[in-house]
C-alpha cells in the first residue's frame, strides 16, 4: 500500500523522457491530463537480466497509469526489480516503485503525494505476465525484550538476526489453495552427535487465485531452519521442503513457495535493495 504525505502549494517541476524516474506534466492547454503510457513489450528471450528490466518497466508504467486514471496532473515514478528464480519457462521476479504524484486543487494550488509501495512478485512466461497482489501477515511472538524467551532457552541480542525469517507463498493458479506451512529449527542434541528439530511455526494459509501471502517475523534467532509446505488437492498431496539459514536474504521473505499446475516448489530468494 502506498504511503502518502500531502503538502499544499507545490509548484510545477520539469519533465524528462524515458521510463526510469521520469516526471510527466499536464499540458497547460490540455484538458486530458497526463498521458498514459503503453506497457513495455515482453522480452523475446527470457533470462535473469531481461526479466528484471522488463518487470521494473512494467511496474513503473502500471503505477504511472493508475495515478493518471485518478486525475493526476504530474507523475514521477521510479521502479526497481530483482530476478528471483526460474523453472522452465516460468520466471519469477520482485518489483517495487516509488515517486511522487501531483493533483490540482480547486483553489489552483497543488497537493503532492509521496509514493513508496511494498515489493510485489511477478511471474513472466513467454505468453503471460502476472503481477500478484500480496497479503502480508506477521506471526505474533511473546515478549519484546532483547533477552525474551524463545522456546526453552533465553536468547541474547547477539543471537538474533535482522531481517527475520519470512516465507512468501505464491499461488499462480486460477483456483484458491489451502497450504500447511511448517518451520522447524535444527539443533544439536546434548551429546553433540544427534540432531533434533524444534517446531517454530505451524499454520494453515489460504491463498486466493493469482495472489500471494507473505508470512513475516517467523523467528529472528540465528541458526538453521527447515521450511515445509504441504498442499492437498483432490486427494493428491504435494509437498515442498527447503533448508535455510538465518541470517539470510536482506528482504522481508527469505524463501519462496510456489503453487502452480505442477504442485509445490520451494526456492531461496536473493537480497533485494528496492528503490
TrEMBL record:
<protein>
    <recommendedName>
        <fullName>Lipoprotein</fullName>
    </recommendedName>
</protein>
<feature type="compositionally biased region" description="Acidic residues">
    <location>
        <begin position="143"/>
        <end position="156"/>
    </location>
</feature>
<feature type="region of interest" description="Disordered">
    <location>
        <begin position="141"/>
        <end position="160"/>
    </location>
</feature>
Amino acid at each position: 500500500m502506498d504511503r502518502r504525505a500531502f503538502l499544499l502549494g507545490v509548484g510545477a517541476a520539469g519533465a524528462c523522457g524515458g521510463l526510469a524516474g521520469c516526471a510527466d506534466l499536464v499540458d497547460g492547454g490540455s484538458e486530458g491530463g497526463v498521458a498514459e503510457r503503453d506497457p513495455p513489450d515482453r522480452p523475446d528471450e527470457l533470462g535473469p537480466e531481461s526479466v528484471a528490466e522488463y518487470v521494473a518497466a512494467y511496474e513503473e508504467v502500471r503505477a504511472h497509469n493508475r495515478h493518471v486514471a485518478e486525475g493526476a496532473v504530474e507523475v514521477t515514478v521510479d521502479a526497481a526489480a530483482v530476478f528471483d528464480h526460474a523453472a522452465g519457462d516460468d520466471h519469477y521476479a520482485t518489483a517495487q516503485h516509488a515517486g511522487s504524484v501531483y493533483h490540482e486543487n480547486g483553489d489552483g494550488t497543488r497537493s503532492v503525494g509521496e509514493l513508496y509501495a511494498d515489493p510485489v512478485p511477478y511471474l513472466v512466461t513467454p505468453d503471460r505476465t502476472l503481477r500478484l497482489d500480496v497479503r502480508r501477515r506477521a506471526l505474533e511472538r511473546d515478549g519484546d525484550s532483547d533477552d525474551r524467551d524463545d522456546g526453552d532457552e533465553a536468547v541474547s541480542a547477539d543471537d538474533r538476526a535482522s531481517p527475520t525469517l519470512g516465507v512468501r507463498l505464491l499461488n499462480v493458479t486460477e483456483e484458491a489453495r489451502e497450504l500447511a506451512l511448517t518451520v522447524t529449527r535444527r539443533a544439536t542434541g546434548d551429546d553433540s552427535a544427534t540432531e533434533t528439530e524444534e517446531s517454530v511455526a505451524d499454520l494453515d494459509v489460504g491463498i486466493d487465485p493469482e495472489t500471494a501471502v507473505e508470512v513475516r517475523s517467523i523467528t529472528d534467532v540465528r541458526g538453521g531452519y527447515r521450511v515445509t509446505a504441504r498442499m492437498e488437492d483432490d486427494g493428491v498431496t504435494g509437498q515442498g521442503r527447503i533448508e535455510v539459514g538465518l541470517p539470510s536474504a536482506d528482504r522481508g521473505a527469505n524463501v519462496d513457495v510456489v503453487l502452480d499446475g505442477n504442485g509445490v516448489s520451494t526456492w531461496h530468494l536473493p537480497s533485494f535493495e528496492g528503490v
